[in-house]
Amino acid sequence: MHRYRITSRLLLCAIAAAATTARPLAQERPAPVVEFAAGWLSFPDDGVVREAMVGAAARWYVSPRLGIGPEISYISGRNHSHVIATGNLTWDILSPSPGGPRPVTPFLVAGAGLYRTREQFPVGPYTSGEGAFTAGGGVRARAGHRVTVGVDGRIGWELHLRINGLIGVRLGP
Predict the structure, then answer these.
(1) pLDDT, averaged across the chain
(2) Is 10 part of any domain?
(3) In a 10 Å sphere around its CB, with 0-12 CB exposed, 13-18 middle and 19+ buried, how is residue 97 labelled?
(4) Is 1 helix (H, G, I), strand (E, B) or coil?
(5) For the segment 106-127, what is each residue's pLDDT rounded down to a tens digit?
(6) Which domain holds residue 63?
(7) Residue 149 burial (CB count, 10 A)
(8) What sign for the dihedral angle of Cα 145, 146, 152, 154?
């Protein structure tokens, strides 16, 4: 039941974000973007466990400020690893300028999907999976005509705090 409430709330947030991003049809949507990320996750356990992560995401804009797309992250730990695969909703807080992307764009992001863990024990490997979500925000800055760099921070389930750097490449004009 709890998972359905989270899904309902994410859907409601997506609808609200889409409504607030309504613009005249003459304004074009930004080109699709591919982003690569690297950073760390911090898990509360018997202490704080910190692990490195790498990932990639794609984003297609459905309006000038609202993008959707998949993300996959790989987290490497001692004797175990995690893979998080989510479908993300990204909302650029500021509208693009008339000439294209702004020099600096703050954004919010939320995603839901799957969290898979593989652990190595003396008797053999053990794999488990569960639902996952992440939510947070960050900022992207233009580093060239099609390239952006940025940072984002998120909280997610399985309970973790995530901070990572981003490099994005716009795939169109």
Answers:
(1) 86
(2) no
(3) exposed
(4) coil
(5) 999 999 999 998 988 889 888 8
(6) 29-170
(7) 14
(8) positive
